[in-house]
Design the sequence.
């Protein structure tokens, strides 16, 4: 990890302010400019003090405990800044926040001081938890009484929170991010998107910027305020009054972002009002033009007996839905509650487009891979795709529109999600360019060329849309070759129009069989389709893609092919040690098909204690092949097999690590003979390989040699499958 220079906080702050006073200059009002002017007029050490404070989590400081070695005469500078109003005494409205900031000793001291000043004694026990003491203090003293104590007066608060919050909002677009991200970047802890960032303001004018900030701040503040209300009748009445006052005082939102935040704030307040004034809450929800609010209104209004109104509203939602997600809800709710259809959309899908396959129970925990393996043993090709296929299609196709159009893309290097996707305005903001892109794709050949050129230009670049895979174009080529071009382009446009709801939930696997392509959502026992999955699958089906729901039932396949593996190593950790020997036995239908064995040159010395255990010494492996020399043989021998070993994670982990060193992927379904023997043969004193072979009279040529141990483990597998088969 890199070391940071002495004044790195100060340097980072000025880097941050260059963005504020550069691309965001038109978004600053006279108060903002005055703050910047006053800050720049301070000497460097005073600036450092303020910047150090900005980087703290708390808005409070205890001047006497403030100490930074790089700043001279720190106490004098602090008091000078206090006199200049950069710091002030703790405000009454921040008393609760101050109490949360105090140490337990300070809280005890504050309680004692309050008892000295008041005739009413606050009874407490010093040994009580800090949270209990805080609760007692806040219930027993007013904000004014707390701020009047000497302990409270020993603290100050910054008097520049609002402008700094606004500047941070302009830079990061939220209230979570802090300036410490610059330090994390320089230390190499945080990867940024410097090569993609356009360094631009995320707002077009000061009115929309200020409105968005104020509305976002109000939402953030309101959430905190609502959490502060207790459950007593008096507190709930105060909460209701607070909500109604807040609703009546909301300023007009300017700009799309501010309007979206205002809808979220109104939705929050209306939802909180449901318990105390449901009539008003329902009226408020019905007037909020967001999918979440409309769904909430329908559910709550139905509970309160407004069935006729809900039915009419559901019909209207279906006619002109605010989102694909709301459409899916309306159709399903209308079907289930009003029986306008014989079945819901989910039931239709499960009945019409469902199939059931039996998969060996060894694939529990990795059901999708089990289904892929099932198809690979037939004439079909199967690929795990889930969201990655579709997100890669979208990201490669629209890379320029997402990241490179002026005014879109990433505002700065710390931003990961382009604001156009975050706010779900991608199509609205880039409609002309998106439509031109879609019109330019006149054939499947052109589409694949566009994707290939995009991949060649941007391969490896970090992005939030998809992950780079070596086979990404190969799978996209299959999708394009066996699908209708119009269907692919229509889906791309739909994703652009509603990225928020069509960026996930896609089927688990893609299957190519007999020249036809289909997609399957895999569901094992107990799994259910989630709303986002239903939405994405319905969209694919509406465009002509074949999508099935594949229900998996677990079974025992006596003809399953297994490869029983044992390895010897130079030590116990795959990250640091290497393989010295591999032995494998292939089993199918209970019969041995083949064996494979080889010493491996570990390219390091074998410790004496390992040689004593295994009998394998440095001389024996000196002329043995490297793992790289036999990797192809191992991959071929284990292909389409269940990987079996005694304590399987050890052997599997070492082999997987060796493949990773070669930048190759190794993945097989696993079965552990230790775990399965414990399950099917209970009560044995030890489940070590040596003890089990002795217990079941299994002959071993030599313990701790790979092939001998693998053969012994294959005998255990036979005993396990005998039990499994009997249960079936």
Sequence:
């Amino acid at each position: 990890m890199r070391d940071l220079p002495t004044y790195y906080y100060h340097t980072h702050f000025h880097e941050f302010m260059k963005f504020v006073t550069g691309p965001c200059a038109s978004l600053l009002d006279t108060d903002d400019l005055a703050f910047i002017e006053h800050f720049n007029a301070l000497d460097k050490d005073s600036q450092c003090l303020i910047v150090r404070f900005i980087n703290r989590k708390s808005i409070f400081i205890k001047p006497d405990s403030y100490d930074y070695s790089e700043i001279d005469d720190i106490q004098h500078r602090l008091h000078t800044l206090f006199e200049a109003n950069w710091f002030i005494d703790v405000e009454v409205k921040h008393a609760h926040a101050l109490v949360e900031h105090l140490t337990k000793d300070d809280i005890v001291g504050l309680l004692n001081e309050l008892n000295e000043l008041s005739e009413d004694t606050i009874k407490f026990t010093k040994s009580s938890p800090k949270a209990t003491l805080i609760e007692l203090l806040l219930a027993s003293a007013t904000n004014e009484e707390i701020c009047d104590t000497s302990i409270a007066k020993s603290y100050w608060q910054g008097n520049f929170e609002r402008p700094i919050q606004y500047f941070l909002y302009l830079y990061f677009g939220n209230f979570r991010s802090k300036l410490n991200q610059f330090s994390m970047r320089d230390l190499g802890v945080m990867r940024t998107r410097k090569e993609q960032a356009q360094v631009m303001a995320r707002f077009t004018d000061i009115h929309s910027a200020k409105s968005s900030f104020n509305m976002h701040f109000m939402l953030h503040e309101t959430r905190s305020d609502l959490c502060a209300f207790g459950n007593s009748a008096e507190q709930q009445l105060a909460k209701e009054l607070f909500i109604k006052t807040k609703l009546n005082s909301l300023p007009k939102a300017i700009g799309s972002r501010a309007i979206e935040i205002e809808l979220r704030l109104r939705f929050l307040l209306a939802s909180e009002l449901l318990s105390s004034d449901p009539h008003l809450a329902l009226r408020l929800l019905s007037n909020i033009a967001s999918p979440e609010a409309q769904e909430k209104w329908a559910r709550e209004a139905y509970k309160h007996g407004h069935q006729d109104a809900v039915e009419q509203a559901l019909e209207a939602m279906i006619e002109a839905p605010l989102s694909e997600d709301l459409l899916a809800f309306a159709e399903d709710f209308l079907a289930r509650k009003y029986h306008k259809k014989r079945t819901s959309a989910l039931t239709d899908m499960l009945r019409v487009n469902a199939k059931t396959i039996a998969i060996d129970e060894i694939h529990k925990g990795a059901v999708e891979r089990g289904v892929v393996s099932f198809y690979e043993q037939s004439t079909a090709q199967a690929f795990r795709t889930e969201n990655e296929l579709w997100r890669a299609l979208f990201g490669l196709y629209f890379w320029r529109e997402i990241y490179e159009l002026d005014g879109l893309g990433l505002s700065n290097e710390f931003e990961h999600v382009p604001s156009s996707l975050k706010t779900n305005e991608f199509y609205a903001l880039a409609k002309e360019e998106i439509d031109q892109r879609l019109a330019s794709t006149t054939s499947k050949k052109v589409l694949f060329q566009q994707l290939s050129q995009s991949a060649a230009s941007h391969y490896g670049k970090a992005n939030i849309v998809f992950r780079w895979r070596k086979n990404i174009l190969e799978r996209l080529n299959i999708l394009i070759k066996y699908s209708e071009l119009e269907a692919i382009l229509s889906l791309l446009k739909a994703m652009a129009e509603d990225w928020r709801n069509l960026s996930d939930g896609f089927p688990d696997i893609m299957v190519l069989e007999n020249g036809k392509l289909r997609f399957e959502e895999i569901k094992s026992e107990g799994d259910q389709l989630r709303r986002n999955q239903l939405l994405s699958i319905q969209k694919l089906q509406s465009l002509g893609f074949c999508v099935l729901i594949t229900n998996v039932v677990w079974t025992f396949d006596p003809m399953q092919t297994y490869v029983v593996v044992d390895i010897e190593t130079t030590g116990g950790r795959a990250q640091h040690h290497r393989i010295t020997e591999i032995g494998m036995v292939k089993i199918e239908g209970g019969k041995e098909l083949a064996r494979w064995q080889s010493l491996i040159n570990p390219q390091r010395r074998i410790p004496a204690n390992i040689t004593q255990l295994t009998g394998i010494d440095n001389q024996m492996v000196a002329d043995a092949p490297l793992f790289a020399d036999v990797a192809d043989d191992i991959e071929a021998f284990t292909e389409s097999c269940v990987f079996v070993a005694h304590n399987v994670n050890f052997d599997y982990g070492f082999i997987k690590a060796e493949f990773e060193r070669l930048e190759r992927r190794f993945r097989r379904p696993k079965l552990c003979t230790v775990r399965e023997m414990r399950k099917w043969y209970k009560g044995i004193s030890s489940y070590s390989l040596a003890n089990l072979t002795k217990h079941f009279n299994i002959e071993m040529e030599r313990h701790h040699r790979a092939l001998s141990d693998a053969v012994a483990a294959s005998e255990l597998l036979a005993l396990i499958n005998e039990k499994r088969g009997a249960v079936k």
